[in-house]
Structure formats: structure tokens, C-alpha cells
Amino acid sequence: MGERARRGTRTTPPRTGRGRTRDPSLTPRALAAARAEYGRAGWASFTLDGVARRAGVGKAALYRRWPTKERLLADAIGEHARLPAPADTGSLRGDARALATALLDHFLAPSGWVTLRVAVDAATGLETFASFHEQIVRAHREGVADMVRRAVERGELAPGTDTGTFGEALYGAVLVHAMAVAPRRREHVREHAGEHALPLADFALASLTGGADAAGADGSSAD
Q1: Angle formed by the axes of helices 164-180 and 92-108, to 10°?
Q2: Could you state a single Gene Ontology molecular function term (predicted)?
Q3: pTM
């Protein structure tokens, strides 16, 4: 059989020295699966086998990219911590309401449990999660800092205003509200996140305004 005939009978492409072409969708699928798997069961039950099953890939494919489960989870959480920039609505109250709505949607989403799991695992003293927790906390703090900076520039807040309590009140109120939602109602509340988040934002703003002017800095009514 000649060379041309042999080439004609080949049914699979030749392998190159670099191995198989990588599936570009594998990384985002694996990272999403890692967050979902960790959010479901926490670090104690987090395995590459579980991530591979959830992502629909072979475990070997994960090992080629992430040699350990710590590296995989670090990348997954690093992407998770990159939150979108807080909305600039033109007023402190509008910004706080937009942030509260986004936070409630985040905590009610399946991946929202990642934030809670990291906080719990970090609090137990697991060093692996200290940096993970700091990434998420830093991202949230930067969001509040940007919102406060805009409020100072607009003259809504005096320079040097202590906003630590406000940030804790906002995140705390939204988090507790999300945890109080029954599992069967999570999607429904998510679809109406704004209705649930607005009074929580106004409550947190009271830590900055001392409870004065319930209508808020933009002069709009609570309704």
C-alpha cells in the first residue's frame, strides 16, 4: 500500500508532541464546578473527583491544570472575589440600595454559599483559607470605600466619616436576611431582590445619618 493510500485510510488526526488540543470551555466549567462543590459541602468534603463529576470532565484533565485541590479552589475563589464595580446611581442612598440588591442576589445564588463557607473555614483556623477570606473581604471593603468616596465628593458625607459600622450593618443585614429565606423560596426572593434589599439598605444607612431623615440623602421616599 502506498503512502497516499495509507494517509487516506487514517481515521483520526495524528497526535502532536504537545498532546491533545485543550478544550477552552474546560477552565470556566471546572472553576464553576469547584465553587458549586465547595459551596455545597465545604472543604472537608471537597475533592477533585466531585469537581470532575460536576463539571463533566475526567479527573486527569483537572490534574493537568491544577496539581492539587488547593490550587483549583484558590483559582475558583479568586475569580469569585472579583465583584463588579458598585453602581454609581448619583446618590448615597441609591448606591447603598443597589449594593444591597446585588449582595442579596449574590448570597441567594448557588455560588453565594462559597462566601459563607470561606468565612467558616477561615474562622476554624485553617490557614489555607486565610488568604481566600482576605480576598473576599478586601473586595467587599473596596466596594464600600468607592461608594463612600463618591458620597464625600457629592457632599453627602463629611470627609473622614467613620463608615466601618455602615459596611458591617449593610453586609450583616443582607446576609442574615438571605440565610432566613427558606430553600424553596430562594429563587422567588432572588427574582424580587430589590424589594427585599431596599429596607435593609435604609437600615444600614441609619448608622451614617443617625436615623435622621428617613427619606434618605436623595430626598426620595422609602416607598
Answers
A1: 40
A2: DNA-binding transcription factor activity
A3: 0.72
